[in-house]
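Input record, target 12 of the design panel.
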């Protein structure tokens, strides 16, 4: 209070002073009540934020855990569970982004928990840049009217999306006539990927990648294109897919030869539903994968994957697929492979991931002490593999024999001792017998540094198939499965070589019609890598 206010108060009588004091007390009480309410609201907001952040982290953990499980087994229920968790996580993060925040302090900090600073990734260097300069409105100094001189500049970048648009390319070929002899000359018509087709290589590549990599069936693509005012019937798109598949067949065969020329390949298969002609029902076909990837052993040979479709899972199929292969096959314990190993031309390498998975399931279901110890012992083997990944094959072999072999011998002895204490029909006994029954194949990776401890390379190659399983209703015939296998081979091999699959297919389709068939290997992904921009995709 100032002196004038005090002077005014001296003029008041006692009753007026009491009234003033009571009024001030009421105001203070009202402010305290408002402050208390605000504090309660802030506390409630903090609790809500803490609960939401905790749920977000919990969902991320569960999604990561389910994804690790997803590619090790076939489960439509698991796929749906992941989808629902992803939707819930998306909703929480969207709600979080809706809250306005003018500055970092706008979000109340949680008790005893620092607010992490957001991490912004730098924008990719290979993207085209458009520079826009924003000059100040002042032409002279707003204070003294002096001349403004350049001092420097602040530069920031935003990521923008330019809508993909169709365009029509008019191919004009003028005719020229000779004035002396009436001879007419004209440039030859440029080749098209599909003879007399109206689709360019870029559009064909986009349709293929959308269907087989982004899991967009043709009828959905047709709807998307219609929004751009381009009417493309599903039947037209289907003709394009069939035509490009036929055109790319020699390249897929070259890819198969490359895979089968390796000294070690990974093999696996997965079921795919296929419409049965004339019955309106689905039958179960199989998509087989064979992967050549020797990078973990320090080999620079380009990785590749070849898929093959069959209408069933008979053992004769892997025999036919591997007819040209000599070396080691890393695969699961599918009985159909037994005939493949009979002649000795192909050796069997077991998969420790399959062994571990059986014990891990028992640990989760029953908290079995035996399963817990088995998982822990196998984890020791994987810890060694993590250290030597990418090392030369001979070095890997030496380290495995020095460090991994004693662990394996101890594990085998423990398996044999434990088996005698278990009920013969128990799930744990079955898991132990599974490992002991394949012990020679499971030990083979110790004797050859070029081999891997497991068959995860093949399982990773089937991720796209698992994610797009609903896309596997192939127009009521097995031919659709064969087309899918062919296109998947090229797309997945491009990804393994860190190429954008759409850019790769466009490059191939631009030239394959005129490319000599005896030099088809020149169009394999790694041979075009220098011409294509690197992809942001990184193969696992």
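The sequence produced for target 12 reads:
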């Amino acid at each position: 209070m100032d002196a004038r206010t005090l002077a005014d108060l001296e003029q008041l009588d006692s009753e007026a002073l009491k009234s003033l004091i009571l009024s001030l007390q009421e105001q203070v009480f009202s402010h305290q009540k408002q402050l208390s309410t605000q504090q309660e609201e802030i506390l409630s907001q903090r609790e809500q934020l803490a609960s939401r952040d905790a749920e977000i982290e919990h969902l991320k953990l569960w999604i990561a855990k389910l994804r690790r499980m997803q590619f090790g087994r076939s489960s439509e229920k698991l796929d749906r569970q992941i989808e629902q968790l992803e939707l819930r996580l998306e909703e929480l993060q969207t709600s979080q982004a809706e809250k306005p925040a003018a500055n970092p302090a706008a979000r109340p900090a949680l008790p005893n928990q620092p607010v992490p600073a957001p991490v912004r990734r730098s924008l990719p260097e290979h993207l085209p840049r458009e520079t826009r300069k924003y000059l100040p409105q002042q032409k002279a100094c707003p204070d003294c009217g002096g001349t403004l001189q350049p001092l420097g500049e602040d530069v920031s970048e935003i990521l923008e999306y330019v809508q993909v648009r169709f365009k029509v390319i008019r191919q004009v070929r003028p005719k020229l006539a000779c004035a002396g002899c009436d001879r007419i000359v004209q440039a030859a018509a440029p080749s098209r990927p599909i003879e007399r087709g109206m689709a360019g290589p870029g559009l064909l590549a986009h349709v293929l990648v959308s269907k087989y990599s982004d899991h967009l069936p043709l009828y959905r693509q047709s709807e998307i294109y219609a929004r751009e005012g381009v009417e493309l019937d599903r039947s037209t798109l289907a003709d394009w897919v069939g035509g490009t598949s036929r055109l790319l067949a020699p390249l897929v065969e070259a890819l198969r030869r490359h895979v089968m020329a390796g000294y070690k390949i990974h093999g696996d298969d997965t079921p795919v539903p296929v419409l049965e002609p004339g019955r309106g029902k689905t039958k179960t076909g199989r998509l087989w994968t064979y992967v050549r990837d020797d990078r973990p052993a320090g080999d620079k040979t380009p990785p590749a994957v070849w898929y093959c479709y069959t209408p069933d899972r008979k053992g004769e199929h892997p025999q036919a697929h591997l007819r040209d292969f000599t070396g080691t096959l890393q695969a699961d314990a599918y009985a159909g492979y037994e005939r493949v190993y009979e002649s000795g031309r192909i050796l069997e390498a077991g998969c420790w991931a399959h062994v571990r998975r059986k014990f891990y399931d028992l640990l989760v279901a029953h908290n079995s002490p035996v399963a817990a110890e088995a998982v822990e012992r196998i984890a020791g083997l994987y810890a060694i593999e993590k250290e030597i990944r990418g090392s030369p094959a001979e070095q890997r072999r030496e380290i495995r024999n020095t460090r991994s072999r004693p662990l394996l011998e101890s594990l085998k002895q423990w398996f044999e001792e434990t088996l005698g204490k278990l009920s013969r029909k128990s799930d744990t006994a079955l898991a132990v017998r599974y490992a002991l029954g394949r012990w020679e194949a499971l030990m083979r990776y110790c004797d050859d540094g070029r081999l891997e401890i497991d068959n995860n390379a093949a399982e990773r190659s089937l991720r796209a198939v698992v994610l797009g399983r609903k896309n596997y209703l192939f127009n009521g015939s097995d031919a659709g499965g064969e087309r899918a296998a062919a296109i998947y081979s090229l797309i997945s091999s491009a990804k393994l070589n860190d190429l954008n699959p759409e850019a790769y297919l466009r490059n191939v389709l631009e030239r394959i019609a005129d490319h000599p068939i005896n030099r088809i290997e020149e169009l394999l992904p790694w041979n075009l890598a220098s011409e294509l921009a690197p992809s942001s995709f990184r193969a696992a």
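Confidence is low (pLDDT under 50) at residues 101-112, 536-540.
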